[in-house]
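Checked the freezer inventory, then went back to the computational side. Two predictions to log before the end of the day. The first one is the construct we discussed on Monday; recording sequence and tokens without edits.
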Amino acid sequence: MSSHIVGYPRIGPKRELKFALESFWDGKTSVDDLQNVAANLRRSIWKYMANVGIKYIPSNTFSYYDQMLDTTAMLGAVPSRYGWESGEVGFDVYFSMARGNASVPAMEMTKWFDTNYHYIVPELGPHVKFSYASHKAVEEFKEAKALGIDTVPVLIGPMTYLLLSKPAKDVDKSFCLLSLIDKILPVYKEVLADLKSAGARWIQFDEPILVMDLDSNQLQAFSDAYSHMESSLAGLNVLVATYFADVPAEAYKALTSLKCVTGFGFDLVRGLETLDLIKVDFPRGKLLFAGVVDGRNIWANDLSASLKTLQTLEDIVGKEKVVVSTSCSLLHTAVDLVNEIKLDKELKSWLAFAAQKVVEVNALARSFSGIKDEALFASNSMRQASRRSSPRVTNATIKHNVAAVMKSDHRRSAKVNVRLQAQQKKLNLPALPTTTIGSFPQTTELRRIRREFKARKISEIDYVQAIKVEFEKVVKLQEELGIDVLVHGEAERNDMVEYFGEQLSGFAFTSNGWVQSYGSRCVKPPIIYGDVSRPKAMTVFWSSMAQKMTQRPMKGMLTGPVTILNWSFVRNDQPRYETCFQIALAIKDEVKDLEKAGITVIQIDEAALREGLPLRRSEQELYLDWAVHAFRITNCDVLNTTQIHTHMCYSNFNDIINSIINMDADVITIENSRSDEKLLSVFHEGVKYSAGIGPGVYDIHSPRIPSAEEIAERINKMLAVLDSKVLWVNPDCGLKTRNYSEVKSALSNMVDAAKLIRSQLNKS
């Protein structure tokens, strides 16, 4: 009986790691305190998997921020601005790379493939002197071994690490990152030698980059890299794991041709076509780690269906060569369903979080080996049938409305240049108008108020009054700073997706279904279990209240359908685009009501549009077509004078710029500063953007406060490729993760910079 887990959530069932990190960053606790919390979490995870019966238990999947940053530390690839020269990379350098500090900015952060998890992007070049600078992998292996648990140390593979990196700021953008392969392999070899000396028998290389469209040169470099490590891998069993999509035929051939590898891991949930490749040709004598349990969603596995898949694989590779596994790391799902005491019994029976998925893997492995738990399988079949037949899942009217939507293109009646002229007459904004993205700091007091209202410890009247006071504070601050288009700060909502999902039909919410997004940032994705509609207005009351506090335009703040979809646990019993169109129709109703209430600027955030882009180019056009269409549905009927904004952040947008233009928003605010103005390169290349655009002028995920001069320099870079008539000035993202002293200083400098450039424009 062989079972394997690719990786496991590290935040803890009650977000223990999040609170330990934040307390450490705030100087309230010591390094020892942080390390003790982390060690307790790691050990509890290893012990749990061992007790369930998992054979191949991963180690080195625990991280204080993310595994790519861990690999950067392991390779000693620390950018020079952090002042590190040699020795072990400590917490001060590690967290400075992730978050920046008072004197230097953080490294770029972007999405991990098509997930809502983020990683810190390595900055590389020919000048980097790689060295073995973090012994975390071997230390965690020894820690588990001391508990009597033999683990499989997991490393980000050299190909994935290099191809997810970027040339450093002073390096030509055409620099070939793969040219560094011979420089990093010696460090990998040192790590392998260390692990072997510590008694490791297995090593897992995560190479999810293999699911991408790699060319022949890249695939040859992959083959060469593992060939060069062959002598160092001698004496170890080697697993190369891929996940998130099908492995293309050429990559599959390169992977399965490796001589030094013992087993190959495939995602057989999102990579069904890989199964066809396995049927045609799988190397004899190798282990197949079959990822049949979904690591990215929260639905209970259909055990009977998975068992059939495993039996199909048995006919191809032999029973003894099949290892039951998760499709990817369980990092992307919630921790434990046991912690959910408020979900109703029926819905809860349809779900499986990480802890339950470990049990599913083990149950499948036992059944596959001939020890089938008949009661468990019978119960699972009943739960699957219950979900399929439940009346709460399907609504015929909603399905009819979605079918009708697909017959129209949903474009606004006037072109964007006509609309912008009409909006300017009404809004009378200055050149380079300033705004923020939506949220303001979420203080401890604010969280307490929301928590007590939810627990019915304070009345609705008291709650509304408290939120009103917070709105007034935020509005007053923005007016004092001189910001042109205001926001109310979103004091009434803890999370942008959760807030809307709570008011839409077809959604359910967990109490402790937290998932790590990056570092200490955790989100609690809603569960979309049924057809979606809007029973009543969701934001009109609050937006109208805020607009009455000021003569300046006040944004109505909404989350777009694609982002709600991509930041939720989505039902897997119908195409994703159908669910997205249902959400779009609900948001459309809200937009209409905001406009009727006199809100003239409405922001519909699509922060996760790029995140949902399929990893394979052949599938991307279809996704972009329906995703962009869904956004247009939300606002196709508004007046020309109503200004529609959208916002996107922390992804690479250059390759989808034409789809962004096709969204036909009046203004888009978009992350730019943390990625070294990467976005601006697309305009240097000749792309014309005639709508309003606000590339972010400073990174809100870092505590560092940029000066007015630094921001003005950024604005001037933007003006080199964008017309001053369409340029907006704004931060990269919302401000909820910052404190008020940081926000006041940064926004003050931002407004000063905008005024400085305006005066220069007036003189020219």
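The second is the one RB wanted added to the comparison set:
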Amino acid sequence: MEPSQTVEDKSQPSVATVTRRIQRLSLHLIPLPPLQCSPQLDMLTCAKANKQEVDVASLSSYMRGKHREIQEKIFYFFNSRPDLQTPTEISMKEHRELCLRQLLGLVREGKIKPFRYVVEDPAKYFAISEAVGSIDISLGIKFGVQYSLWGGSVLNLGTKKHRDKYFDGIDNLDYLGCFAMTELHHGSNVQGLQTVATFDPITDEFIIDTPNDGAIKWWIGNAAVHGKFATVFARLVLPTHDSKGVSDMGVHAFIVPIRDLKTHQPLPGIEINDCGHKIGLNGVDNGALRFRSVRIPRDNLLNRFGDVTRDGKYTSSLPTINKRFAATLGELVGGRVGLAHSSVGILKIAVTIAVRYSLLRQQFGPPKQPEVSILDYQSQQHKLMPMLASTYAFHFATQYLVEKYSEMKKTHDEQLVGDVHALSAGLKSYVTSFTAKSLSTCREACGGHGYAAVNRFGTLRNDHDIFQTFEGDNTVLLQQVAADLLKQYKDKFQGGALSVTWNYLRESMNTYLSQPNPVTARWESEDHLRDPKFQLDAFRYRTSRLLQSVAARLQKHTKTLGSFGAWNRCLNHLLTLAESHIESVILAKFIEAVQKYFLNSATKFIPFLSTCHIYKFEFLNCFECNF
């Protein structure tokens, strides 16, 4: 008590106490400026302080390339708008509205117009998407639903009349839309969809119907609150004059208005329900759509691969349902490419947070000496360094995928379409699975502080988790890769040509299979083990052996179990084959990128090369168990 205070004053705080409390409270409202440190938080001198000099500008320019400027523009916009930044604590309803405001702000105030790049410059579109997703993954997904899925379906599956009618509204967000493919009973099996679009030749309309509860469109992004249109995938049914009465022409895409443009109320015959709170991505308003005899004009059929004339006749340049279906899905592969690319972006964020924390966090050390950075501990390095190296590898692999996808959009080369389909399936599956596991590892590497919501690991982990499921379940996608490899294997022995990405298998099957395991047969000096050619040979040898052995097993089991039963009997073998092949592709692209960087900047090569070796030996350690 101050000497001047009386007994009666004891219950009243002094002026000094009040001032101190106000100062403390003000720090919660007005944080200290960057670079200004509290004396209590000054860093102690590290016991080991070896610093590796890296030319950050050169490496950043090489990694981010020509689209760095537009990414910086996006970051600047959101940094200048605190009202558009996602708070740690936010309700689902508030998050959805914030997500919409973020998207509107980016397009209308930030002047970022990405829609034309979906077809014209996919690499630029994916660079924008990565930057947007780093602000809030919910925003990234809402952005993708609007432009890549809803907008992309109009551009890629429709014709000029659809682009002329809808382009501007999609671009400026007047026409917020949905991509209504998934049904309650059918996700991965798109050919099994049950929603029906029956042509009425009298009125020149299609009638969209949901025949049962299992056919309700489910998990449809933008549907619950904001969407005004939907691209609806349904079985196109035409009336006939034979005994059947109708003819099923397979799954097609239709533009269906779902809300009134003025009142925003659901249109007649359309029932919209909210899928509710999710594990993550609660800024995205996922909903369920049910159609009860909803009539749309015949022109609303997205008719690039199949059309219906005024008198009800079906026309197409593709002769079969399967070919039309394959062509349709081939044009939608951009969503899968985008997910692989976005997953790497999320991994970059998590690894950056974990490595920076590990450099600054000090714990224990030699007796009577300063504590050391936890990144100096071998266990912490083992957690994070292979992950850091893999992040670089995935960056270059997905960059290659984007380049091949861009080339495919320009040339429409049939062989390239198949190549991109299989490569995107494999990389999306492999990268998203790796990122999902790594997010938990990064959180653990940051100890208790990693559990604080403000450090983002919880949000990143929950929001990213679904990446392993949508745009194709990862296990299903790996089977597509394995099936494509087996087709290439069969074609090779029947004299067919191998496609570009799988070209190495030609050499593999002619030479590697006649040689002993390169890992066990040539285990020599350190220089040899660090030789990129040897390392790539080892990866490719493994893939070739797995391909040869699973082909023999399938042939054997098909005789007794049939093709479906044989496939199921060998399923784990097939998944291992697919993962092995994708690892070989990733490594090849990583080596190419490192060598290219070396040619451009030799003095800065060593740190970058080290990450490459870490990535390769992480997988080489597992080789013995495969044989």
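For RB: Residues 532-569 form the longest helix (38 residues). The chain has a mean pLDDT of 85. Let me know if you want it refolded.
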